[in-house]
Specification:
The chain has about 950 residues and is of the alpha+beta class. It is about 45% helix and about 20% strand. Strands 3, 25, 26, 27, 29 and 30 form a six-stranded mixed β-sheet that branches. Helix 1 (about 1-45) crosses helix 2 (about 50-85), helix 1 (about 1-45) crosses helix 16 and helix 2 (about 50-85) packs antiparallel against helix 4. The longest helix is centred in the first third of the chain and has 45 residues, at about 1-45.
C-alpha cells in the first residue's frame, strides 16, 4: 500500500515541478517578448523601423555565423577523434576511471561543449555587425596611403574585417585542436608513457591537419599585420604610422615570417602523410625563434643604432606622412593661417573698424545666469533650466543678435505631490523658450530678455511668428508620460505666471503623434510590464486614445535612429518654422586611418562645460560632422540630414540605411540660420592643432612650437579645467564681414607646471551656413608677447584699483563672481572682456551683472558698462558702441525724510561760517550717500548699499581735505 501511495504522490510532485518550470519559462519569454514588441512599436511610431530591423537581422545573422562557425569545427573534431579511437587500446587505471565517469554524459557533452562554445562565439560575433555591414557596403575614400598605395577604405573597412575573420577562425581551430587532443588522450589514441608518446594513425592525421590549418592561419595573420603597421603607433618618434624602422625592418620581417609560417604548415601536412613529427616541431621552433629575432630584435637594432642617432633627418619623410594624414583625417588640412601682428597700445578710436564686432560682445555668461533664469522665469518648482545655457543667434529688428537661451523644461522631481497620476498624466511637459540678449542687460544687472513669460511673448516671437511652446521632449523629460487619453488632464502652464495660487492653471491635451498608441488592452499590458507599473494597465486615465512618450532625450532618440553616429555632447534648442527643435550634430569616426594620430574623443572634448572621463577608451583618428539631426520638442520627430555628403563613411551607411537620411537641400532656411559649427568637433581639432599647426618635419620633431589650450582662468586652481571655446559674432581678421564664430586660444606647451601663459595662436571657425561654413582660421603670433587668458586674469586680480572696488562689492552678504573671459581680435590686437557679477548669499539670490573688466595689451579698465570700460581703455573714446551704452546703473531713488513738526521750532543757534561751495557739495554728497545706504539696507539691496558706502567714504574724505 505504501509503495502504491508513494508512486502517485511522486508523479503529482513531478507534474507540479514540470508545470512550474513551464510556467516560469513562459513568463520569462513573455517578459522578453514585451521588451521586443515595445521596441518595435517605438521604432515604428518614430518612422525608423527599418533601422531596428536591419540591426536585428544583422545581429541575428552574425550570431548564427559565429555559432555555426564555432560549433561545427569543434563538434566535428570531437566526432572524428571519438569515432577513430582505437578499439582495443590499453589504458591505465586512471583513464579507465575517467572513461567510466564520462561515458554516461558523452553524448550530451559532444553536443553541449560545442554548443556552449558556439553561444559564446555567437554573442561575440553579433557585436561586430557594424563592421560587417560596412565591409559589404564599403565606399572608397579616393585617397591612398603613403606606404602601400591602397585606398584608405582598405584600412577602414577591409583590414579589420579580414583580421576579425582570421582571429575567429584561429580561435575555432585552436579549440578544435584542444578538443581532439583531449578526446584522443582519453580514448587511447594518444598515449604518454614516460618520455615516449604514441599516436594512432588517424589521430596523427587529424592533429597534423588541424595544426597545419592553425599555423597557416597564423601566417595569414602575420601577413596582414604588415598592413596594420601604418595604423599602429611607431616604435620610434611617430605617434602613429610606420616610421623608418617599420618600413625597412618590421614590414619586411612580417612578410618573411608569413612565408616561414606557410612552410611550417606544409611540414604539418607532410607529417600527416609520412608520420614524422620532427620536421613540424623543428619548423615551429624555427618560426618562434624567427619571430623573436626577425620580428622584434632586428627592428630594435635598426631603430636603436640606425634611426635614433639621426632621427631628425631619417624620420623626416615619415613625419611628413604623419602630418599630412593627421591634418586630412581631422579636417584641418585646409586651415587658413594668418600671421597676426598684434598691437599692444590702446589708442583712441582703435575699435572704429571693429564696430560690429564690438557691438556683439557677449556679456551674459551662459554658465552663470542659470540662477537668474530660474528666479525670474521658472515660475513654478516643477520647471527647471540646465546648468549651462546655450548660445545661438536670431535676427531681431533686422540685426543679428547673439542670444543666451534655454527651454523651460519640466522638473519631474520638483512637484510637491509625488504620485503615479501626477507624474505620468498631469505633469507631462515643459513650456516655452527663455532667451536673453547676449550683449545687453537691464539697469539692475539682470539679463534683458527678448523672449520670456508664460504664455511666451517677446521680440523673438515677433520676429519669427507664433510657435508651439510646449516641450514634451527634452534633456530633463520624465521617464515616460501618457498623454492624449482624456480632455484637459495635463497641466499646461500656471495661468497667472509667477503667482502662488495653482487653482487657475491652464490645461491641455496632447495633439501630436509622439509615441506608441495604447489603443488596446494588450499594449497596455506590455507597457505595464516594460515600466513595471500596473497603473498603466489599471488607470481610467489611460484610454484607447492615449499615447505613451518615452526615450525623450534628444541624444537618445537620434542615437537610436542612427546607431552608427557619435553625437555631440551639446544639443541646443532653436525656434524653427513655428516649432521648437533640438539640433544635434552627429559624427562619423574611425580609428583606422593610416598614419593619422589617435586621440581619445571624450578626453579631447573635456573642459569646464564637459566633464573629463576617468578612463577614456574611445580613440579615434578620423572625424567628420557628417549629419545634422533635429528632434521636434513637441512630438519627438527625428530628422537626419546628410550634412557632409562627400564623407565616404556616411556614404557607406547610406547604403546600409537607405531611407533614413535626407539631403541637406531639404533643410529650411530658418533651420540653416541656426546651424552652427559643432563644439566637440572644434575641440578635437584644436587638440590636434596644438602640435599639427607645425608642418615642417624638423620643427615637428623638435617639438619646439607645440601649443596647448589654456586652463579656464575662472576654474579652481586645485582642479583646473580646460577653457571651453566660445560662440561670438565677430569679424575675424582676413574675413570681409562679421559672422557667427566659434573660437579658442593657444598658449605654449611646457613640460613643467610653470607654463608660460602668453598667447601664441587664435583659432576661429565660421559657423554661418554658406560657402565659408566650417572655414578654420588660425591667427599666429610669431614674435609678440601678448598676455594669455591666465596672465590677463592675474592682472585683473592683482590690480590695486580693481581689487579695492571688488572688495567694496564683496562687503556684507555678497560675493563676486567672474564671468567667462572672452578674447577678441579687434583694434589690431587682442581685447579681453570679462563680465563681473555680484550675488547675495541669500537662498533666493542670483548673480547680477554689475561691472565689466577689459584689457588690451598691458592696459586694463573696470567700469559699470562695457561701453564705459572700452572708452576708458582707449583714451576716452574707443571709436565703437559696445551695445550697452543705454544701461543706467543708477541706484533706486530714496523717498525724502518726513518734515519735522512746524509747531515745535528749534531754538536758533549762532550762525557759523558757511562752508565753501566745494565743501558744501562734499557734505551734500555724504548726506545723500548716507540716505541711499539706509534705503538700500531697507530694500535688502546689498549691492546698492556697498556702492553707497563707497560714495560715502569718498565724500567724507573730500570734506576732511577741504576742511583742512
Amino acid at each position: 500500500m505504501s509503495t502504491t501511495t508513494s508512486q502517485p504522490t511522486n508523479r503529482s510532485r513531478s507534474a507540479l515541478i514540470i508545470t512550474a518550470i513551464v510556467v516560469g519559462v513562459l513568463v520569462a519569454l513573455f517578459f522578453v517578448f514585451a521588451n521586443v514588441y515595445t521596441d518595435i512599436l517605438w521604432f515604428d511610431q518614430l518612422g525608423y523601423l527599418p533601422v531596428l530591423a536591419t540591426q536585428w537581422i544583422a545581429t541575428g545573422v552574425m550570431f548564427l555565423v559565429g555559432f555555426v562557425g564555432m560549433f561545427l569545427p569543434v563538434w566535428a573534431s570531437l566526432q572524428i577523434a571519438y569515432r577513430s579511437r582505437p578499439v582495443y587500446a590499453k589504458l591505465n587505471s586512471q583513464l579507465d576511471r575517467y572513461q567510466e565517469a564520462i561515458e554516461p554524459l558523452r553524448r550530451a557533452a559532444m553536443i553541449g561543449i560545442p554548443a556552449v562554445l558556439g553561444l559564446f562565439a555567437g554573442v561575440t560575433t553579433s557585436a561586430q555587425w557594424t563592421q560587417v555591414l560596412q565591409f559589404f557596403n564599403r565606399t572608397p575614400f579616393g585617397t591612398t596611403d603613403a606606404q602601400f598605395g591602397f585606398d584608405i577604405g582598405f584600412f577602414v573597412y577591409e583590414l579589420p574585417f579580414y583580421r576579425g575573420i582570421i582571429a575567429f577562425a584561429s580561435a575555432a581551430v585552436l579549440l578544435s585542436l584542444l578538443a581532439a587532443l583531449a578526446t584522443s588522450y582519453l580514448y587511447g589514441a594518444l598515449r604518454v608513457n614516460g618520455r615516449e608518446i604514441r599516436i594512432s594513425r588517424t589521430a596523427r592525421i587529424q592533429l597534423a591537419i588541424t595544426g597545419a590549418v592553425y599555423i597557416a592561419l597564423q601566417g595569414v595573420s602575420i601577413w596582414f599585420d604588415q598592413y596594420a603597421a601604418v595604423i599602429a603607433p611607431s616604435e620610434g618618434f611617430l605617434p602613429a604610422g610606420a616610421g623608418f624602422a617599420e618600413v625597412n625592418a618590421t614590414i619586411p620581417s612580417r612578410a618573411i615570417l608569413a612565408g616561414i609560417a606557410a612552410l611550417v604548415a606544409v611540414l604539418f601536412i607532410i607529417t600527416a602523410i609520412v608520420g614524422r613529427w620532427r620536421l613540424p616541431i623543428v619548423g615551429t621552433a624555427l618560426l618562434l625563434v624567427s619571430g623573436l629575432l626577425i620580428g622584434s630584435v632586428y627592428p630594435w637594432i635598426v631603430q636603436r643604432f640606425q634611426v635614433d642617432p639621426s632621427a631628425r633627418t631619417i624620420e623626416a619623410p615619415f613625419i611628413e606622412r604623419n602630418i599630412d594624414a593627421t591634418r586630412a583625417a581631422y579636417g584641418v588640412d585646409e586651415l587658413v593661417e594668418i600671421s597676426y601682428d598684434a598691437k599692444t597700445d590702446a589708442t583712441e578710436g582703435a575699435l572704429r573698424e571693429d564696430a560690429e564686432t564690438t557691438a556683439n560682445i557677449r556679456l551674459i555668461d551662459p554658465a552663470l545666469v542659470t540662477e537668474a533664469f530660474a528666479q525670474l522665469e521658472q515660475f513654478r518648482q516643477y520647471y527647471q533650466f540646465p546648468e549651462f545655457l546655450d548660445v545661438d543667434r536670431y535676427e531681431i529688428g533686422g540685426q543679428t543678435q547673439d542670444t543666451v537661451l534655454s527651454l523651460r523644461e519640466l522638473n519631474p522631481d520638483g512637484q510637491t505631490s509625488q504620485n503615479w497620476y501626477n507624474n505620468t498624466i498631469v505633469f507631462t511637459h515643459g513650456y516655452g523658450v527663455v532667451a536673453a540678449y547676449g550683449n545687453q542687460r537691464a539697469d539692475d544687472g539682470q539679463p534683458l530678455f527678448l523672449e520670456s513669460g508664460i504664455p511666451v511673448d517677446g521680440a523673438l516671437t515677433e520676429a519669427l511668428g507664433e510657435y508651439e511652446p510646449r516641450v514634451y521632449f527634452g534633456e530633463f523629460s520624465p521617464l515616460y508620460s501618457i498623454v492624449g487619453g482624456g480632455e484637459n488632464l495635463e497641466l499646461d502652464f500656471p495661468s497667472d505666471g509667477a503667482g502662488e495660487d495653482a487653482a487657475g492653471n491652464a490645461t491641455y491635451t496632447f495633439e501630436g503623434e509622439g509615441g506608441p498608441a495604447l489603443d488596446n488592452v494588450f499594449k497596455r499590458l506590455l507597457y505595464a510590464i516594460k515600466f513595471q507599473s500596473e497603473q498603466i494597465f489599471l488607470s481610467e486615465a489611460v484610454t484607447d486614445d492615449s499615447q505613451i512618450l518615452y526615450d525623450r532625450n534628444p541624444l537618445d532618440r537620434v542615437q537610436k535612429a542612427a546607431p552608427y553616429l557619435r553625437l555631440d555632447s551639446d544639443p541646443y534648442p532653436a525656434v524653427v518654422d513655428g516649432e521648437i527643435v533640438w539640433i544635434v550634430d552627429g559624427y562619423t569616426t574611425t580609428s583606422s586611418y593610416p598614419y593619422s594620430t589617435s586621440v581619445p574623443l571624450s578626453a579631447a572634448v573635456a573642459d569646464t562645460y564637459t566633464p573629463s572621463p576617468q578612463f577614456p577608451v574611445d580613440d579615434i583618428n578620423y572625424i567628420r560632422n557628417s549629419v545634422k539631426a533635429t528632434v521636434n520638442a513637441y512630438d519627438g520627430e527625428v530628422t537626419l540630414y546628410a550634412w557632409d555628403e562627400e564623407d565616404p563613411i556616411l556614404k557607406t551607411w547610406q547604403k546600409v540605411f537607405p531611407t533614413t537620411l535626407r539631403s541637406v537641400d531639404d533643410m529650411s532656411q530658418q533651420l540653416l540660420d541656426h546651424v552652427r559649427y559643432p563644439s566637440d568637433l572644434f575641440k578635437v581639432q584644436r587638440n590636434i592643432l596644438g602640435a599639427y599647426h607645425v608642418t615642417d618635419p624638423g620643427s615637428f620633431f623638435s617639438t619646439d612650437d607645440e601649443w596647448v589650450t589654456p586652463n579656464d582662468p575662472i576654474s579652481s586652481a586645485a582642479a583646473p579645467t580646460t577653457q571651453p571655446p566660445y560662440y561670438l559674432t565677430m569679424q575675424v581678421p582676413g574675413e570681409d564681414e562679421p559672422g557667427f564664430t566659434l573660437y579658442s586660444t593657444f598658449i605654449p606647451r611646457t613640460a613643467s607646471d610653470n607654463e608660460r601663459n602668453v598667447l601664441t595662436g587664435y583659432l576661429a571657425a565660421n559657423s554661418d551656413p554658406g560657402d565659408d561654413y566650417g572655414k578654420l582660421t588660425l591667427l599666429t603670433l610669431p614674435s609678440q608677447t601678448i598676455p594669455g587668458p591666465g596672465q590677463v586674469q592675474n592682472q585683473f586680480n592683482s590690480d590695486t584699483e580693481v581689487a579695492n572696488q571688488l572688495a567694496l562689492l564683496q562687503r556684507g552678504e555678497t560675493e563676486v563672481l567672474r564671468g567667462n573671459l572672452l578674447t577678441l581680435p579687434v583694434g589690431g590686437g587682442f581685447l579681453y572682456v570679462q563680465p563681473v557679477y555680484v550675488q547675495s548669499t541669500g537662498e533666493t539670490s542670483y548673480p547680477l551683472l554689475r561691472k565689466v573688466l577689459v584689457s588690451f595689451g598691458d592696459s586694463i579698465a573696470f567700469e559699470d558698462t562695457l561701453d564705459q570700460a572700452l572708452d576708458a581703455l582707449f583714451g576716452g573714446d574707443s571709436g565703437a558702441d559696445a551695445g550697452d551704452g543705454d544701461v543706467d546703473p543708477a541706484l533706486p531713488e530714496v523717498e525724502p525724510e518726513a518734515p519735522t513738526d512746524p509747531e515745535a521750532p528749534e531754538e536758533p543757534t549762532e550762525p557759523s561760517t558757511p562752508p565753501t561751495g566745494d565743501l558744501q557739495a562734499a557734505l551734500e554728497d555724504a548726506r545723500q550717500a548716507l540716505q541711499d545706504r539706509q534705503a538700500a539696507y531697507a530694500a535688502n539691496d546689498l549691492v546698492a548699499a556697498a556702492e553707497a558706502d563707497e560714495r560715502l567714504q569718498d565724500a567724507i574724505e573730500r570734506a576732511i581735505a577741504l576742511s583742512d
